[in-house]
Amino acid sequence: MDSESVKKTIIRQTLLATNTTNARTLIENINEQCFERCVPKPGGSLTSGEENCMKQCMEKYMAAWNVVNASYIRRIQQEMGNQQPLGNH
C-alpha cells in the first residue's frame, strides 16, 4: 500500500469515528438543549405544546447538523482529491 492509499484509509476511518461521535453529541445536545427549553417543569407526560416545541427544536438541530456534516464531508473529499461521495467506494 503506498502512502497515498494509507492516507486515504486513515482519513476514511477518522471520518467514520468522527461521524459516530458527532451523532452521539447531537443526540445529547438535542436532549439537553431542547428539553431544557421546551419542558420548564417536567411532569409525568409532555403537554401538546411541549411536544410541539421539542419537535421543532429537534428539527432545527438536525438541519444544522446536516449542514455542518455535509460541509465536513466536502472538505474531507477535497483533502482526498476525490469528488466521489465517501460512501460510494
Strand content: under 5%
What pattern of helices and strands is seen along the backbone?
A: HH
Helix content: over 70%
* Average pLDDT figure: 85
Largest sheet: none
How many helices? The count is 2
Task: Give the class from helix and strand content and strand pairing.
Answer: mainly alpha
Give the beta-strand count: 0
Shape: elongated
The stretches of 5 or more residues where confidence is low (pLDDT under 50) are: none
Distance between the ends: 17 Å
> Rg to the nearest angstrom?
18 Å
SSE inventory with pairings:
Layout: H1 3-38, H2 48-80
Summarize the structure.
By secondary structure, this protein is mainly α. It has helices at residues 3-38, 48-80.
